[in-house]
Design brief:
It is built from ten helices and 17 strands. With 375 residues, the protein is α/β, with parallel strands linked by helices. Pfam families: tRNA_U5-meth_tr (PF05958).
Length: 375
Amino acid sequence: MYCALYDAGSCRSCQWLERPYSQQITDKQSHLEQLLKAHSPQQWFAPVTSAQQAFRNKAKMVVSGSVERPILGMLARDGAAVDLCACPLYPASFAPVFDCLKPFIARAGLTPYNVARKRGELKFILLTESTQHGKLMLRFVLRSTAKLAQLRAALPWLQQQLPQLAVISANIQPVHMAILEGEEEIALTENQALAEQLNDVPLWIRPQSFFQTNPAVAAKLYATAREWVRELQVDTMWDLFCGVGGFGLHCATPSMMLTGIEINAEAIACATQSAKMMGLSGVQFAALDSTRFATARDDVPQLVLVNPPRRGIGAELCQYLSRMAPPYILYSSCNAQTMAQDIAQLADWRIERVQLFDMFPHTAHYEVLTLLRHQ
């Protein structure tokens, strides 16, 4: 992939861009194999590769510059603004959106936030696209509600220019810290759920719910999990750290009893909506802490699926699983190092299958799916 921003030294987020893509995959696979070497996995599946550009479904843009000439992109370490609108990781459909947003910021009088001076209102623009119909979710991250009335008044022009905008909201992030969003979300459109579909499963994305940034590879990840779970023929399952329910909804069958747990209430609302659409009466989702939910239970399902954040599932949940001994654990991870640390604590399980999914080309990051069977 060629990137003028990288060549100019303006953005080096894609740290591995100079490595041939085939070498990136080889290096990631070698890293994973080294981490799991002591556990002697029984079966390795070939890595799932990604498109090398235009694979991202979302953009997180720092807004800087002036109200008349806003810059959408990032701030370099020296504080200089870098325009990332031409980033080749974004689909071509994002370019006309960025082109409209720049004059809209001026129309709405949304002064970009100046980090050095701690002044201004508009901090970030967050854009997400659905692969289903090309509809968009747009979020304005503001320092306060001071410019909210101006934003509302200017929105009809933006909606006329960009009829693909399905969900619009304002997030209030008042603190002077490198935090992407705050707790308060203010709806600016009646609809606050962006429809998505991966494989044959309807999914929903709400403003504060997490969704994978590489939907093509995510679809393959979910499909693989479904295939592996169906082969096990289990009828009870927990989906911990379930997000919007991608794994559980793919794996569930009409006869399965499945409980999905996720601390983010917005994500649970999405998962519940999908389960209702699919007619899955045996599936339920709850907004709870996954570790607290599990460790408070005296029962255990046949399969526990975990998809934790980068920190892994941690010692407390590992100890609970070791004590309750479910027959199978399906571990999806975005950080193979913490996954390997967790697996080291699950001494009574053997690794049956492992597969790498390259969700993040041109970086050292990747996703991995690991099936463990109790011995």
